[in-house]
């Protein structure tokens, strides 16, 4: 009997009692699970998927393998998951860009992150950082904003993702200054230009700048989390600087197709939480600039919706129309 038929039978039996659901959960997984990552090997999302995937293999009793499908802002990986059966054996490692930002900026996306996917569990969550050259005359973000206003000029903001572009637009709105966006292909090139003085100001993920900040080559003026980051405790948050509600995050989390059965989704989510709470999981987390994202199914879905709405409001206020 084909697996689709088996799932249909189980669904029918579930109306008669709870036992079939228990049996369905117990049968998952009975073959390898694939995590599709929309980035090349070596990225934060890739690293987390591989480390936790190895731990999940032990907990679930089946191999959990990672497959990299980079390109097209995550669309290649998304399509690979959407075209696979909704049975929990093909999982998407989604980040804020494809799951929250692209739906704001693209009118004709070939997927709906809320209708086509359902949240499983978070992996890691981090914040964005505002950076200048290490010996910049601007020691604080208010200093920089005051200079831009005094000189009646535009602040040039470097970014390397649509999400960071929106954060830059948000800064302009909140500070009351005009901004010009300079897109980069990656954080390394952006940082190099900031350190060389070719770019006055940039937005980068916090994890990517830690070493250069500690080495004095970059100065971090502010971060976008609710609290100060544990690795840069002397750097204020945007909210501390008086920008109320200026809170934004980068994240990586697991998603499955929306039609995936509840028991399968919860079984996978429970297993992720188990490995993240294990000594091995905590040891890995201690080495990462991001924090563990301990959000299970509904909580993760609520967070995703909140981030989407936050970016949507910024885009509307900045007059950024979806393409």
Give the structure's gist in a few sentences.
With about 325 residues, the chain is α/β, with parallel strands linked by helices.
Number of strands: 10
Strand percentage lies at 15-25%
Category by helix and strand content: alpha/beta
Helix percentage range: 40-55%
| Morphology call | globular
Stretches where pLDDT is under 50 for at least 5 consecutive residues are 1-25
> CATH architecture of the largest domain, please?
3-Layer(aba) Sandwich
Largest sheet: 10 strands, mixed
Give the full name of the CATH homologous superfamily of the largest domain. Bordetella uptake gene, domain 1
Q: Give the CATH topology of the largest domain.
A: D-Maltodextrin-Binding Protein, domain 2
Textual characterization of the structure:
The chain is 45% helix and 20% strand. The protein is α/β, with parallel strands linked by helices and 323 residues long. It has two domains: 3-126 and 250-318, D-Maltodextrin-Binding Protein, domain 2; 127-223, D-Maltodextrin-Binding Protein, domain 2 (3-Layer(aba) Sandwich), CATH 3.40.190.10. Strands 1, 2, 3, 4, 5, 6, 7, 8, 9 and 10 form a ten-stranded mixed sheet that branches. It starts with a helix and ends in a 5-residue tail after the last helix.
